[in-house]
């Protein structure tokens, strides 16, 4: 077992790639049979990766705030192959591993053209996402972070909706522009600190002047990825046009890279600038929460509505991260995990009806509670989780963030809390229009309830949402030590609190 | 120190061999029967290039050696760049066969001219004196002018050759004028003596003016803005294998010469030329990024793309440090593979027995020929410099070197233009993967095209991070030692 533990992260990176290579070699005279083989290989690969991530979670030492499962090898020059996880990243990797089999299952019947390429793109993407969360060399991180654009660009562009080309360009160029500014900062850091190791960079004291600019450069990248208002506009387009699986991964994992980046880079590496510029993040987050919630209220497209709700939820995450106390940051991480599952589930739910009726227009539906009972229950359940009903995962994260925000500034907490109310408004309005009401449309009447495969997709999601809501400690346990260390190392001085108030 | 009557030929063995072999090839071409002349010279030219590369490499590892009274120098850097030139030439020679035969221009002069121009490039790379620089440059250029016009029955080709010749002669003239000024103000043409002359104090104004004229000439040869005007027309007009050759080998040689003049002769007065290089670098990146946006012909697109790439390589030169030279060497090495691969792909664009050049002709390629589409996409993402592909490494190294020299603005502008240029590389990927096919392309003709395309796609694939990155970075660092 020691071999497994020593090379666990490398294994997680290589299993999806090996799966992709196997898929590449799948050949069969009968196209349908070949596609089915491809799907099965993809499913088994992602399940195997998921088990590896679970194994990592089980063997993760929660009392240890340092990086674990570390792998380090010389590569080229100063660049190292350096991987490891701590409390902040471990569960994000588990989340990635968890969502991937679900994505494959969800694409089972929905994707019928170029199945092979689709699955390869997703497996490569999975490898890159795990790489982002586990890279401890800043060069390696950048490569994984940026590299993810290519498979996602292809996923949106090839298997997306009618306006997919515009959306794929926007997604690619927007995120790339943000990231190249980060690259400028990365080059500066490599030069000044003389190291590419992320743990060493965390301890390196950058001058306050430099921190200011570095922080802004990283902010440019992560804010786009997150996405924060006003650079969020790529997200609704990308979501609406992407195939269901793409939306799930986009909302579930890719958005989390922004939050992860803040926690891994901005906070520990540039603590002074973080305190100095927290007001900026708060301002943008509050606008995001209130403005995008209002925008979500008037959407006619289900996916767009959920996309805007994602922006609002990410506003909570950024607030939680930048209040710089234990509750806020733990709440932020928890919200990321919860949002990853809940919004992923909501996109899957949209996908279910889209597969049947091929439209995402809200007004084309109505009264689904009558003929699609299981579907309706699931829809309401995940809507409640999105709103943050106690007992679901959404509640715990938002609650912790609000506590953290209240400790920092009561006005901040007040404004953020309006987001909860607005969130309830747009989600309930959506439920009302889609699930309830009169079942008067002929084609909607003929829609079938969830199939066994679809039930299989939603069952684990529901279980995890309840688990996270009822016993959040299993998820908070591994986070504690690393967050406490982050706060103790960089933000323990009382001045920190004052700065966070914006005084 | 006795001056031998015959200079030490050992360091220049490869050049001597090339010169003799070119003559021999000419004989083979003349005396072979007309049907077989091209094929035979092609094979022998390839063999010659390989032997030249072997000779170059076998002479490597030693210290810097001068010969011909300091006119000619052989060092790590020259070995590295010569190998690149040979790779570029071999690649384009491999591409040439089917295209030339089809257009009835498969004459034996083609390989001979190629070998002669490679000889010129070798002399450029090894020049240690403004005189040998000029001789090498002209030998190279004259061969290239003829190559551009080799399809003499086609107006576009002759136009390309003429344009290239007239503008090239102009730039040579400016360069000669600059050389005369440098000689007038310093009394020497030897790089080492020049380096000692300019060290320690601000150089005389006349010397700086002369240097600017020399830079002008060099900028023309690497097609840096504002001396790039010939590039799109020549790229489009010249036969495609010739364009591939233009884009790969002479670019590498001219960049090497650029580095040698700036870092070798004027390495101690970086301040007096740095801003010029910064300017042409920024201008090249901007032109390369923005003007390419509206191109529909893929050869013209590649012309602007190459202008942009030269801009990125010049970022490394602008750093004016050993790290910068290392970055330039690495960048050019990667660039040669990318550009050869792309031109191989362009040669693979055929339908109904004819060659295609419009980007739109690639529509839906992923449905009709997925491996070709994936190879092209790999090259495009690599040209765009997206991490995960090899092209990113070149950008990473040049920008790191520029940052180390404190050129923040240059780095920021460079990266932003790389985002802009991403758009047109993405467009090609979009056309291949997202659009519906109009009709399938013909299967790729010629083993050479297939080999060049697949090798360069492999080199630019993520695989290289594991296999090629370490040796290449090591080799370029070794090459840059020449300028310590």
How does this structure look, described?
The complex is a heterodimer of chains A (503) and B (484). With 503 residues, chain A is mainly alpha-helical. In chain A, 77% of the residues lie in helices and 3% in strands. Chain A is built from 23 helices and two strands. In chain A, strands 1-2 form a two-stranded antiparallel ribbon. In chain A, helix 5 (115-134) packs parallel to helix 12 (244-269). Chain A starts with a helix and ends with a helix. Chain B is mostly helical and 484 residues long. Chain B is built from 20 helices and four strands. In chain B, the strands form two sheets. In chain B, strands 1-2 form a two-stranded antiparallel ribbon. In chain B, strands 3-4 form a two-stranded antiparallel ribbon. In chain B, helix 5 runs antiparallel to helix 6 (155-186), helix 13 runs antiparallel to helix 15 (370-384) and helix 16 runs antiparallel to helix 17. The mean pLDDT of chain B is 88. The A-B interface holds A 75-77, 114, 117, 128, 139, 142-147, 149-150, 153-154, 157-158, 164-165, 168-169, 172-173, 176-177, 180-181, 183-184, 187-188, 190-191 and B 366, 370, 381, 386-388, 392, 396, 399-400, 403-404, 408, 411-412, 415-416, 418-419, 422-423, 426, 429-430, 433-434, 462, 465, 469-470, 473, 477.
* Low-pLDDT residue intervals, each spanning 5 or more residues of chain A: 495-503
Q: What is the molecular shape of chain A? A: globular
Give the overall average pLDDT of chain A.
86
- How are strands sequenced across the largest beta sheet of chain B? 1-2
Average pLDDT of chain B works out at 88
Radius of gyration over C-alpha positions of chain A, nearest whole angstrom = 22 Å
Largest sheet report of chain A = 2 strands, antiparallel
* Beta-strand content of chain B: under 5%
Structural class of chain B: mainly alpha
Q: What pattern of helices and strands is seen along the backbone of chain B?
A: HHEEHHHHHHHHHHHEEHHHHHHH
Number of strands of chain B: 4
Distance between the termini of chain B: 26 Å
Largest binding interface between chains:
A-B, 35 and 32 residues
The end-to-end span of chain A amounts to: 53 Å
Percent of sequence in beta strands of chain A: under 5%
Tally of alpha and pi helices of chain A:
23
Count up the domains of chain B: 1
């Amino acid at each position: 077992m020691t071999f497994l533990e020593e090379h666990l992260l490398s294994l997680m990176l290589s299993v999806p790639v090996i799966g992709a290579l196997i898929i590449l070699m799948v050949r069969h005279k009968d196209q349908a049979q070949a596609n089915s083989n491809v799907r099965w290989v993809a499913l088994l690969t992602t399940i195997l990766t998921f088990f590896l991530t679970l194994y990592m979670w089980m063997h993760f030492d929660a009392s240890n705030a340092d990086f674990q499962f570390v792998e380090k090898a010389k590569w080229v020059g100063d660049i190292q192959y350096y991987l490891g996880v701590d409390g902040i990243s471990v569960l994000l990797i588990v989340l990635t591993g968890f969502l991937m089999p679900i994505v494959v299952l969800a694409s089972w019947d929905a994707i019928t053209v170029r199945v092979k390429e689709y699955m390869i793109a997703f497996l490569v993407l999975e490898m890159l996402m795990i790489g982002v969360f586990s890279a401890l060399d800043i060069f390696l991180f950048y490569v994984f972070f940026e590299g993810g654009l290519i498979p996602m660009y292809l996923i949106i562009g090839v298997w997306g909706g009618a306006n997919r080309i515009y959306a794929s360009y926007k997604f690619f160029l927007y995120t790339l522009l943000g990231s190249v500014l980060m690259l400028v900062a990365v080059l500066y850091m490599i030069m000044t600190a003389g190291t590419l190791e992320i743990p060493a960079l965390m301890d390196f004291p950058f001058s306050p002047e430099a921190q200011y600019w570095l922080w802004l450069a990283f902010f440019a990248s992560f804010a786009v990825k997150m996405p924060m208002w006003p650079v969020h506009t790529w997200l609704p387009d990308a979501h609406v046009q992407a195939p269901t699986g793409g939306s799930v991964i986009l909302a579930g994992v890719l958005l989390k890279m922004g939050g992860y980046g803040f926690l891994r880079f901005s906070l520990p590496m540039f603590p002074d600038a973080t305190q100095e510029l927290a007001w900026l993040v708060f301002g943008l987050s509050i606008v995001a929460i209130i403005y995008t919630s209002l925008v979500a209220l008037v959407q006619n497209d289900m996916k767009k509505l959920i996309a805007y709700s994602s922006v609002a939820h990410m506003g909570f995450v950024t607030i939680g991260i930048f209040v710089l106390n234990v509750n806020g940051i733990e709440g932020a991480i928890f919200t990321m995990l919860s949002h990853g599952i809940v919004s992923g589930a909501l996109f899957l739910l949209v996908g279910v009806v889209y597969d049947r009726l091929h439209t995402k227009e809200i007004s084309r539906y109505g009264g689904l509670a009558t003929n699609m009972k299981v579907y309706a229950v699931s829809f309401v359940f995940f809507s409640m989780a999105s709103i943050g009903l106690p007992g679901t995962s959404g509640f715990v994260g938002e609650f912790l963030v609000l506590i953290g925000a209240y400790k920092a500034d009561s006005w901040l907490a007040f404004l953020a809390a309006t987001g909860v109310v607005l969130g309830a408004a747009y989600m309930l309005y959506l439920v009302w229009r889609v699930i309830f009401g009169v079942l008067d449309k002929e084609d909607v009447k003929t829609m079938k309830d969830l199939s066994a495969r679809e039930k299989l997709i939603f069952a684990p999601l529901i279980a995890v949402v309840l688990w996270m809501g009822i016993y959040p400690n299993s998820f908070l346990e591994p986070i504690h030590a690393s967050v406490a260390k982050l706060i103790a190392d960089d933000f323990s001085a009382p001045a920190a609190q004052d700065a966070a108030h914006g005084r | 120190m006795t001056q031998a009557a015959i200079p030490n030929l050992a360091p220049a063995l490869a050049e001597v061999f090339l010169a003799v072999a070119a003559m021999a090839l000419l004989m083979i071409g003349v005396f072979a029967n007309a049907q077989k002349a091209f094929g035979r010279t092609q094979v022998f030219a390839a063999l010659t290039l390989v032997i030249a590369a072997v000779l170059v490499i076998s002479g490597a590892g030693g210290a810097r050696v001068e010969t011909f009274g300091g006119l000619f120098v052989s060092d790590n850097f020259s070995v590295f760049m010569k190998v690149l030139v040979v790779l570029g030439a071999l690649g384009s020679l491999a591409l040439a066969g089917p295209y030339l035969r089809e257009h009835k221009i498969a004459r034996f002069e083609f390989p001979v001219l190629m070998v002669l121009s490679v000889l010129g490039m070798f002399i450029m790379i090894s020049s240690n004196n403004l005189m040998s620089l000029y001789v090498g440059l002209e030998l190279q250029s004259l061969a290239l002018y003829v190559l551009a016009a080799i399809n003499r029955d086609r107006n576009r080709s002759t136009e390309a050759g003429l344009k290239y010749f007239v503008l090239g002669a102009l730039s040579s003239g400016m360069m000669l004028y600059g050389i005369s000024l440098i000689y007038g103000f310093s009394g020497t043409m030897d790089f080492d003596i020049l380096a000692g002359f300019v060290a320690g104090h601000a150089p005389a104004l006349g010397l700086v003016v002369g240097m600017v004229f020399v830079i002008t000439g060099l900028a023309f040869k690497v097609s840096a803005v504002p001396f790039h005007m010939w590039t799109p027309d020549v790229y489009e007009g010249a036969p495609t294998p010739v364009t591939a050759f233009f884009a790969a080998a002479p670019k590498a040689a001219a960049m090497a010469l650029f580095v040698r003049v700036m870092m070798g002769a004027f390495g101690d007065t970086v301040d007096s030329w740095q801003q010029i290089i910064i300017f042409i670098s920024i201008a090249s990146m901007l032109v390369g990024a923005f003007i390419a946006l509206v191109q529909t012909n893929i050869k013209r697109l590649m012309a602007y793309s190459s202008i942009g790439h030269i801009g990125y390589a010049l970022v490394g030169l602008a750093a004016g440090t050993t790290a910068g030279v290392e970055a330039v060497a690495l960048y050019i090495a990667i660039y040669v593979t990318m550009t050869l691969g792309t031109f191989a792909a362009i040669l693979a664009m055929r339908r109904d027995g004819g060659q295609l050049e419009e980007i739109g002709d690639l529509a839906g390629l992923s449905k009709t020929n997925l491996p070709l589409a994936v190879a092209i996409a790999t090259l495009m993402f690599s040209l765009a410099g997206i991490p995960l592909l090899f092209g990113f490494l070149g950008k990473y190294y040049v920008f790191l070197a520029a940052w180390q020299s404190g050129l923040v603005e240059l780095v920021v502008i460079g990266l932003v233009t790389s985002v802009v240029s991403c758009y047109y590389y993405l467009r090609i990927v979009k056309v291949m993967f997202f659009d519906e096919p109009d009709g399938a392309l013909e299967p790729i003709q010629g083993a050479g095209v297939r080999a060049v395309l697949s090798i360069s796609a492999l080199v630019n694939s993520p695989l290289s991070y594991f296999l090629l990155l370490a040796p290449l970075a090591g080799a370029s660092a070794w090459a840059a030692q020449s300028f310590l």
